[in-house]
Amino acid sequence: MIKTPVPRLVGVTAPLRERVRVPSALRYPDFRNYWFGLLASVTGYQMLVMFSLGWLIRNELTGDTRYLGYMSTALAVPAIILGLFGGVFADKLNAKRLLGLAQFATAAVVFALAVMTALDIVTRWHVLVAAFLVGAMQAFDNPTRQSIFPRLVERKALYSAVALNSSVWTGTRIFAPAIAGVIVGQTDISTAIFISAAGFLILSLASQMIRVPHAERARGSVLKEMGAGFAFIRRNRIFSILIGMTFFNSFFGMSYVFLMPAFADEVLEVGPEKIGLLIGAAGIGALVGILISANLGKFRYKGWLLIGGAIVSGAFLILFALTSSSKLYEASLVMLFLADMGMSTYLMMVMTTLQVLVPDQFRGRVMGFYATTWSMIPLGGLLSSQVAYYIGAPVAVAIGGALVVAFALTIAVGSRRVRALGSSGEEV
Q1: Counting beta carbons within 10 angstroms of the beta carbon of residue 18, is it exposed (0 to 12), middle (13 to 18) or buried (19 or more)?
Q2: CA distance linking residue 381 with residue 66, whole number of Å
Q3: pLDDT digits (tens, 9 = 90+) for 287-298
Q4: Can you give the pTM of this predicted structure?
């Protein structure tokens, strides 16, 4: 039974209490403990994946843009292969123990990579193996987290919980890559990797302190329960459409992140600090998109907002690719801000729809399928890095943006159910 404490601000005047409102999900102690642990872990993950690994393997070890793609593939392949199994295990096993184990194992791998880097014995193969192992742990970590946090609050606070969960991923993009860039610029890459390891360890410990309400566990074999999850998604077409959209936008729309080290050298001619700030500007845009989406209430045109967010994101990625240069660094900041604002608006609509509509007994498996689409981001990075190697990073990003726009327009024309999200009779 989830207990909701009544928040009291002792000694604070009534008008001030009305102005200072704690998000409803943070009023639940277990969600609050989980959320702060998640903040530490995701900060470490963003520093590692969005900056440190790419900078290490390209800018310090190889000088070859193709290795950004190889690194992203090493992250993606185990997450894709094991992601569906991770969703089943999230429904079958003790979720908080599974989360703690996955986070601890990730911390151990990242710590080992940091030690080898500090000792100057790290090679490109060490980076690729570490990325592979981190991806494997994420296959179990991601669906488990997605199945836990909605159970830590009552249904009336679910929108708040989804918004806070999403804000961690997008908000940390404001400062995590920038912090990593400053650390690398002022000290060395191993320090940034050590800090990432500490973030994973914090969530591993915090996850063992929360109480997760009981949910009916899947009882059949792994393959049988995986098939049941797939059948559930197929029967409920809105899930398959939204998961398919997320796959497409993840693969083509987010792959630009892995090309940032190449943009630093070849296009913008900047160092690690400024490329970190560029990714941070995208994070600010993403956070703005979440805040807009979280405060829509009963807005009737959420389906059109979902489609429009994807179109805006793709369009500004094209502009970013076509206008970036050493003389237009500030314009690049604006373009990525707007691109990620559109993308996070779209993704927030997808996430709230999935979490509101999916029943608890299928939550792990549905979110396992959803998490697998996110695992496609590094594979998109592989494709875009190959395009970038032969015809340039700006062309690779522009192609990805154009495909995102084209697919969003296809959904706008072909799916009445998506267009109707938020209207009378469509629950979101």
Answers
A1: exposed
A2: 10
A3: 888 777 766 656
A4: 0.71
Phi, psi of 392 (to 5 degrees): 105, 145
Mean per-residue pLDDT pooled into runs of 10, the chain (428 residues): 49 46 80 91 89 85 81 83 77 82 94 93 92 91 83 79 79 77 85 93 91 67 74 80 81 80 75 74 81 69 82 91 77 88 83 75 75 74 82 87 88 76 54
* CA 327 to the chain's CA centroid: 31
Q: Would residue 84 count as lying in a domain?
A: yes
**C-alpha torsion 267→269→275→278, nearest 10:** -60
Q: Is residue 310 part of a domain?
A: yes
How long, in residues, is the chain?
428
Domain span including residue 73: 22-419
What is the spatial distance between Cα 222 and Cα 362, in angstroms, rounded to a whole number?
Answer: 13
Dihedral (C-alpha) 263, 265, 266, 268: value to the nearest 10 degrees? 60
> What is the spatial distance between Cα 164 and Cα 170, in angstroms, rounded to a whole number?
10
Q: Is 5 exposed, middle or buried (0-12, 13-18, 19+ CB in 10 A)?
A: exposed
Say if 194 falls within a structural domain: yes
Domain count, the chain: 1
Domain holding 341: CATH number?
A: 1.20.1250.20
Which one, of 336, 309, 322, 290, lies nearest residue 404 by Cα? 309
Tens of pLDDT, residues 137-177? 988 888 888 888 888 888 777 777 887 887 787 777 667 87
Residue 8 lies in a domain: no
Distance CA 344, CA 133 (A): 28
Q: Which helix (H) or strand (E) element contains residue 128?
A: helix 124-148
Calpha distance 33→26 (Å, rounded): 9
Contact 101, 375 (CB under 8 A): no
SS3 307: helix
Amino acid at 128: L
